[in-house]
Design a protein that fits this description.
CATH superfamily of one domain: RlpA-like domain
Shape: globular
CATH topology of one domain: Barwin-like endoglucanases
Structural class: alpha+beta
Distance between the termini: 39 Å
Number of strands: 12
CATH architecture of one domain: Beta Barrel
Strand content: 25-35%
Largest sheet: 6 strands, mixed, barrel
Number of helices: 5
Order of helices and strands: EEHEHEEEHEHEEHEEE
Length: about 220
Protein backbone atom coordinates (compact mmCIF):
# COMPACT_ATOMS: atom_id res chain seq x y z
CA UNK A 1 0.00 0.00 0.00
CA UNK A 2 1.33 3.41 -0.97
CA UNK A 3 2.29 5.66 1.90
CA UNK A 4 0.05 8.72 2.15
CA UNK A 5 2.25 11.84 2.11
CA UNK A 6 1.88 14.86 4.35
CA UNK A 7 -0.20 17.16 2.19
CA UNK A 8 0.34 20.89 2.19
CA UNK A 9 -1.99 21.11 -0.81
CA UNK A 10 -4.24 18.67 -2.61
CA UNK A 11 -2.55 19.27 -5.95
CA UNK A 12 0.81 17.96 -4.68
CA UNK A 13 -0.15 14.34 -5.30
CA UNK A 14 -3.14 12.24 -6.26
CA UNK A 15 -2.72 10.63 -2.84
CA UNK A 16 -3.79 13.98 -1.35
CA UNK A 17 -7.16 13.92 -3.13
CA UNK A 18 -9.95 14.84 -0.69
CA UNK A 19 -12.73 13.53 -3.00
CA UNK A 20 -14.28 16.98 -3.30
CA UNK A 21 -14.32 17.86 -6.99
CA UNK A 22 -15.45 21.43 -6.33
CA UNK A 23 -12.06 22.44 -4.90
CA UNK A 24 -10.04 20.56 -7.53
CA UNK A 25 -9.44 16.91 -8.33
CA UNK A 26 -7.07 14.48 -10.03
CA UNK A 27 -7.99 13.27 -13.52
CA UNK A 28 -5.94 10.48 -15.15
CA UNK A 29 -2.79 11.72 -13.41
CA UNK A 30 -3.43 15.41 -14.15
CA UNK A 31 -4.57 18.08 -11.69
CA UNK A 32 -7.87 19.84 -12.50
CA UNK A 33 -8.38 23.11 -10.56
CA UNK A 34 -12.15 22.66 -10.12
CA UNK A 35 -15.40 21.41 -11.60
CA UNK A 36 -16.28 23.62 -14.56
CA UNK A 37 -19.48 25.64 -14.18
CA UNK A 38 -22.71 25.02 -16.04
CA UNK A 39 -22.10 28.22 -18.00
CA UNK A 40 -18.75 26.82 -19.14
CA UNK A 41 -20.14 23.38 -19.93
CA UNK A 42 -22.85 24.98 -22.08
CA UNK A 43 -20.66 27.68 -23.62
CA UNK A 44 -21.01 28.79 -27.23
CA UNK A 45 -17.77 27.51 -28.74
CA UNK A 46 -15.92 29.42 -31.50
CA UNK A 47 -16.92 28.88 -35.12
CA UNK A 48 -13.52 27.53 -36.17
CA UNK A 49 -11.14 25.67 -33.86
CA UNK A 50 -8.16 23.37 -34.16
CA UNK A 51 -6.92 20.54 -31.99
CA UNK A 52 -7.19 16.76 -32.07
CA UNK A 53 -9.90 14.24 -32.84
CA UNK A 54 -10.41 10.92 -31.11
CA UNK A 55 -13.25 8.44 -31.69
CA UNK A 56 -16.13 6.54 -30.11
CA UNK A 57 -16.41 2.77 -30.09
CA UNK A 58 -18.64 0.78 -32.46
CA UNK A 59 -22.37 1.68 -32.37
CA UNK A 60 -21.93 4.11 -29.46
CA UNK A 61 -22.47 7.29 -31.45
CA UNK A 62 -25.64 6.08 -33.19
CA UNK A 63 -27.01 4.72 -29.91
CA UNK A 64 -26.49 8.16 -28.37
CA UNK A 65 -28.21 9.87 -31.31
CA UNK A 66 -31.16 7.47 -31.12
CA UNK A 67 -31.47 8.00 -27.36
CA UNK A 68 -31.62 11.77 -27.88
CA UNK A 69 -34.24 11.43 -30.62
CA UNK A 70 -31.98 12.81 -33.34
CA UNK A 71 -33.81 12.90 -36.66
CA UNK A 72 -32.64 12.70 -40.29
CA UNK A 73 -29.36 11.02 -39.37
CA UNK A 74 -28.96 9.78 -42.95
CA UNK A 75 -28.41 13.36 -44.16
CA UNK A 76 -24.99 13.51 -42.52
CA UNK A 77 -21.68 11.90 -43.43
CA UNK A 78 -21.24 10.91 -39.80
CA UNK A 79 -21.86 11.82 -36.19
CA UNK A 80 -19.61 13.40 -33.60
CA UNK A 81 -19.32 14.40 -29.99
CA UNK A 82 -18.34 18.03 -29.45
CA UNK A 83 -16.86 19.51 -26.31
CA UNK A 84 -19.77 21.71 -25.21
CA UNK A 85 -23.34 20.54 -24.71
CA UNK A 86 -24.83 23.67 -26.31
CA UNK A 87 -23.61 22.34 -29.68
CA UNK A 88 -25.71 19.17 -29.54
CA UNK A 89 -28.20 19.15 -32.42
CA UNK A 90 -25.97 21.31 -34.60
CA UNK A 91 -23.62 20.28 -37.39
CA UNK A 92 -19.91 20.67 -38.05
CA UNK A 93 -17.40 20.22 -40.87
CA UNK A 94 -13.99 18.66 -40.23
CA UNK A 95 -10.67 18.96 -42.03
CA UNK A 96 -7.73 16.65 -41.43
CA UNK A 97 -4.19 17.75 -42.17
CA UNK A 98 -3.59 17.59 -45.93
CA UNK A 99 -7.17 16.51 -46.68
CA UNK A 100 -10.33 18.16 -48.00
CA UNK A 101 -13.17 19.32 -45.80
CA UNK A 102 -15.68 16.63 -44.85
CA UNK A 103 -19.21 17.10 -43.62
CA UNK A 104 -21.59 17.94 -42.40
CA UNK A 105 -21.40 15.80 -39.27
CA UNK A 106 -24.26 15.85 -36.77
CA UNK A 107 -23.27 16.72 -33.18
CA UNK A 108 -25.00 14.16 -30.94
CA UNK A 109 -23.02 14.28 -27.71
CA UNK A 110 -20.66 16.38 -25.57
CA UNK A 111 -17.90 15.84 -23.03
CA UNK A 112 -18.87 15.06 -19.45
CA UNK A 113 -18.71 18.01 -17.11
CA UNK A 114 -15.89 16.53 -15.01
CA UNK A 115 -13.91 15.54 -18.15
CA UNK A 116 -14.19 18.83 -20.06
CA UNK A 117 -11.16 20.62 -18.61
CA UNK A 118 -8.83 17.64 -18.94
CA UNK A 119 -9.91 16.72 -22.46
CA UNK A 120 -9.43 20.26 -23.80
CA UNK A 121 -6.38 21.39 -21.80
CA UNK A 122 -4.31 18.24 -21.41
CA UNK A 123 -5.37 16.22 -24.45
CA UNK A 124 -6.06 19.22 -26.72
CA UNK A 125 -9.12 17.50 -28.17
CA UNK A 126 -11.85 19.35 -30.07
CA UNK A 127 -14.08 16.52 -31.32
CA UNK A 128 -14.71 12.76 -31.20
CA UNK A 129 -15.90 11.04 -34.37
CA UNK A 130 -17.98 7.93 -34.90
CA UNK A 131 -16.34 4.54 -35.36
CA UNK A 132 -17.07 4.32 -39.10
CA UNK A 133 -15.31 7.64 -39.65
CA UNK A 134 -12.38 6.45 -37.53
CA UNK A 135 -12.00 3.45 -39.86
CA UNK A 136 -12.23 5.69 -42.92
CA UNK A 137 -9.52 7.96 -41.49
CA UNK A 138 -7.19 5.05 -40.74
CA UNK A 139 -7.46 5.42 -36.98
CA UNK A 140 -8.87 1.90 -36.66
CA UNK A 141 -8.34 -1.10 -38.94
CA UNK A 142 -11.24 -3.07 -40.43
CA UNK A 143 -10.67 -5.80 -37.85
CA UNK A 144 -10.85 -3.35 -34.93
CA UNK A 145 -7.14 -2.80 -34.28
CA UNK A 146 -6.43 0.71 -33.01
CA UNK A 147 -3.83 2.31 -35.27
CA UNK A 148 -3.77 5.80 -33.74
CA UNK A 149 -5.85 7.29 -30.95
CA UNK A 150 -6.03 10.82 -32.29
CA UNK A 151 -5.45 12.90 -35.38
CA UNK A 152 -5.07 16.69 -35.87
CA UNK A 153 -8.13 18.45 -37.25
CA UNK A 154 -9.89 21.76 -37.80
CA UNK A 155 -13.57 21.83 -36.84
CA UNK A 156 -15.96 24.40 -38.33
CA UNK A 157 -19.48 25.11 -37.07
CA UNK A 158 -20.32 26.89 -40.33
CA UNK A 159 -19.80 25.89 -43.96
CA UNK A 160 -16.00 26.19 -44.31
CA UNK A 161 -14.93 29.75 -45.04
CA UNK A 162 -11.33 30.94 -45.02
CA UNK A 163 -12.33 34.43 -43.82
CA UNK A 164 -12.74 33.20 -40.24
CA UNK A 165 -9.78 33.07 -37.86
CA UNK A 166 -8.79 29.61 -36.62
CA UNK A 167 -8.69 29.49 -32.83
CA UNK A 168 -6.82 27.08 -30.61
CA UNK A 169 -9.61 25.69 -28.45
CA UNK A 170 -7.30 25.06 -25.48
CA UNK A 171 -6.23 28.70 -25.11
CA UNK A 172 -9.74 30.01 -25.75
CA UNK A 173 -11.08 27.69 -23.06
CA UNK A 174 -8.45 28.72 -20.49
CA UNK A 175 -9.38 32.37 -21.06
CA UNK A 176 -13.10 31.79 -20.45
CA UNK A 177 -13.42 28.86 -18.03
CA UNK A 178 -15.31 29.39 -14.78
CA UNK A 179 -15.78 26.94 -11.96
CA UNK A 180 -18.83 25.54 -10.25
CA UNK A 181 -19.81 25.67 -6.61
CA UNK A 182 -21.98 23.49 -4.42
CA UNK A 183 -25.12 25.42 -5.45
CA UNK A 184 -25.00 23.71 -8.86
CA UNK A 185 -24.59 20.22 -7.43
CA UNK A 186 -28.28 19.34 -7.52
CA UNK A 187 -29.07 20.74 -10.98
CA UNK A 188 -31.17 18.34 -13.03
CA UNK A 189 -30.17 18.36 -16.70
CA UNK A 190 -32.76 17.39 -19.32
CA UNK A 191 -32.52 17.49 -23.11
CA UNK A 192 -35.21 18.13 -25.72
CA UNK A 193 -34.50 17.75 -29.46
CA UNK A 194 -32.94 19.51 -31.22
CA UNK A 195 -31.17 22.08 -29.02
CA UNK A 196 -33.15 22.82 -25.85
CA UNK A 197 -32.01 21.97 -22.32
CA UNK A 198 -33.54 22.22 -18.87
CA UNK A 199 -30.82 23.54 -16.59
CA UNK A 200 -31.51 24.43 -12.97
CA UNK A 201 -35.24 24.45 -13.57
CA UNK A 202 -35.11 26.70 -16.67
CA UNK A 203 -35.57 25.66 -20.31
CA UNK A 204 -32.87 27.18 -22.53
CA UNK A 205 -32.73 26.91 -26.31
CA UNK A 206 -29.31 27.33 -27.90
CA UNK A 207 -28.61 28.62 -31.44
CA UNK A 208 -29.00 26.06 -34.20
CA UNK A 209 -26.81 26.07 -37.32
CA UNK A 210 -28.53 23.47 -39.51
CA UNK A 211 -27.90 24.98 -42.94
CA UNK A 212 -29.96 23.77 -45.88
CA UNK A 213 -27.14 24.35 -48.38
CA UNK A 214 -23.49 23.40 -48.04
CA UNK A 215 -21.08 25.98 -49.40
CA UNK A 216 -17.61 24.69 -50.17
CA UNK A 217 -14.81 27.25 -49.80
CA UNK A 218 -11.02 27.10 -50.26
CA UNK A 219 -9.03 24.94 -47.89
CA UNK A 220 -7.66 26.35 -44.66
CA UNK A 221 -4.13 25.90 -43.43
CA UNK A 222 -3.74 24.04 -40.16
CA UNK A 223 -1.02 24.41 -37.56
CA UNK A 224 -1.12 22.07 -34.58
CA UNK A 225 1.70 21.85 -32.08
Amino acid sequence: MAEIPFCYAENESYLCDDNNTYNGYWWFGAWIPGMVSMDTWFAQSPNLVYGYSTFYGPYAMKATADYRGMKNQERYVGMVSGMFCADIGNQVWIKRYGQEWEGPFLVVDCARQNDLYGIIVYRKEVVEVDYRTAIKWGMVSSNGEILKWRTPVIVSKIPPNSSYAIIELKQWFLNMVKYSDHNERNYVIMYKYPSTWRIGGKWITFPNNLYEHIVRKPNLLMYIQ
